[in-house]
Amino acid sequence: MKQARPLPHYLVQRYQGWRATSFNENRAWYRRLADEGQRPRAMVIACCDSRVHVTSIFGADSGEFFIHRNIANLVPPYQPDGQQHGTSAAVEYAVNALKVTHLVIVGHTHCGGVAGCHAMCSGHAPELEEKTSFVGRWMDILRPGYERVLELPEGEQVRELERQAVLVSLENLMTFPFVRERVESGDLSLHGVLHDIGDGTILQYDPTADRFVPVSG
Amino acid sequence: MKQARPLPHYLVQRYQGWRATSFNENRAWYRRLADEGQRPRAMVIACCDSRVHVTSIFGADSGEFFIHRNIANLVPPYQPDGQQHGTSAAVEYAVNALKVTHLVIVGHTHCGGVAGCHAMCSGHAPELEEKTSFVGRWMDILRPGYERVLELPEGEQVRELERQAVLVSLENLMTFPFVRERVESGDLSLHGVLHDIGDGTILQYDPTADRFVPVSG
Amino acid sequence: MKQARPLPHYLVQRYQGWRATSFNENRAWYRRLADEGQRPRAMVIACCDSRVHVTSIFGADSGEFFIHRNIANLVPPYQPDGQQHGTSAAVEYAVNALKVTHLVIVGHTHCGGVAGCHAMCSGHAPELEEKTSFVGRWMDILRPGYERVLELPEGEQVRELERQAVLVSLENLMTFPFVRERVESGDLSLHGVLHDIGDGTILQYDPTADRFVPVSG
Amino acid sequence: MKQARPLPHYLVQRYQGWRATSFNENRAWYRRLADEGQRPRAMVIACCDSRVHVTSIFGADSGEFFIHRNIANLVPPYQPDGQQHGTSAAVEYAVNALKVTHLVIVGHTHCGGVAGCHAMCSGHAPELEEKTSFVGRWMDILRPGYERVLELPEGEQVRELERQAVLVSLENLMTFPFVRERVESGDLSLHGVLHDIGDGTILQYDPTADRFVPVSG
Question: Where does this protein hold Zn(2+) (chains A, B, C, D) (predicted)?
Fold first, then answer.
């Protein structure tokens, strides 16, 4: 792999700072986590977006969350066809091997993936419809959500589609037999959250009201 | 989505604490990031493992890294077949849309996915060979790495396979035409890192020595 | 004390979040509690176990409960021998200085201390019988309880010994003259509770039925 | 145990509220904690005082902290004399059985136990010097701290003695061979904290400066 390059110096410096401080102060805990294995309480599925800092928002330290991040925090439907499904693999590992007890989908505002999906579905992004567009094919997962926002005024559709990215993923999660089984037995709770990256708030989906509502302490 | 449940109270409390402190102190920056969009310098591909805290290790703040996390930090080969490839979509978005200038694969020790792959390839985990095993099919990506560790004593194979998970991913990245093009034009640097979660060190791949070496400041 | 180390960063962050929210919203109350002193209604004696959250279960706010926590929520018999008795000191302070009107012993299931006591008393943990074993000597307090569970089938003994840890402590409390006096004058009520940490229920000791019964609202 | 009484109604109501909400939302996690055992990262030793809410301040949820609470957050010196030492038993269990990696002494301002110790040592509380005073004998542990504050103006002595309650305990912890060994091997970190219950701040002991300093994020 001859193209690999040394890390930028600023990252090396930060790593060395981290190791001399945070790591050093928690050395024994990291050693235990390595020796005894992880036992995370929750799996979090969030977007790759650089503005979504789940561990900061939820004050999570090493060992707490098993985190999968992909574009637009999407979960595809259950499809055991022998192909590679990275998200489904992560869900399977978290639920069946690690036995997490919470699975949280964290959506967010200003999501480039969701905006692209809306542009594609409304005919404004033909390049995303190409077979060779990985982003386009990935965002196909959200097409059922697009159908549901069509009745809204155009100016509100993208905003609602961000919520649908959470809801469609939760619905798809329930198509996985091992997820459904553990949800129904009470061994796993699903949660849907929307993070507004501009004003810092989070909303959570309330199935009784069938909408996202502010969290209250 | 009637199965969604309220967030655990402790997460709500932590979120409220974050919003009243970190968020509040950086309110203007978050507002700008939302209004003007993200402009991350690097994409990081890391494992979902709860013990791998890339943002801590590299002291990354909101807006710095576009982060994809999947099991065993793997990148599949370029395969534009119209199917859903979440990792390839994330790479495509980071390189083509966000134009990141660094792409870092962060592997780690004690990786459950890698250990599972070794067990599967060596015939000790028939359940992972089932067509319906998402984890097994996902770990197929690392099979070429398994071939290369076979010559080692069995006790060293898993440890070396963790390194191969970084190298195979870097090699697969180079099969993406848009990655290769930008690497060759000097617009994108690839980096391979291995994080020892027990002793807190990181090593980086050095193509001259063809092995992982300590980083130096 | 040159070995002291800085607090882990995640605890500092959580503290800062707490101060900016819960503390800040109740600033005046905390100020009054500091200026005027505490006036707790109840003393609670519970186990150190990390899974026993008395303040959560009983929704207690700052200033409500004077809480002593030790291994297996034990109270030794009255023994004014001039030695150090931390539990007796806590009881004395709560009853004589603070004049609490309730004293609640909260036992719990899956108690490592109780299991160790059973192992020791039944001859399976010789290391706990050593003079130098602090845990063993502490659990000696529960030996009278072990005698009472011997008649049960072995498989039920530990479960019953968890109840005895509550009852023996209540009995020992009555050997303290200042406790007995206030109980008999009606100024202090004793309560015995068993918390099942797995299913979240609590039972309370009913002296009429001479057993633990569900609480009813 | 015929004196036991039913729980006050308000506690029953709060318990029922907790079970229907917090417990219910985290049912699977509590079940796992019960089935698999606790694995707390830290032991905390704090005062029984009703105004000291360690779990709130540090945002700790069920399973995180092994908590011992006694009067004035004191640890006696190592004394394996076959007598009952509840605090030493708790430390032994946390360090040897649970293998916690942090041990935090949390002192606090306005501590009644510390004030009593000062009154006793300065000759103003003869009742605490009685052999039968459990509080007096318990506070004997802090006498070495009193010696060190004598040089200060009388008005500052109690305030400094609260800090000594943390430092003497840390020093005494180091007299336990199993604590010293793990501290020296890097498997356990000791921390000393002082919580001002009136203004909500916490300070931590800095051995370089030899004083308590504000924590910084």
Answer: 47, 49, 108, 111
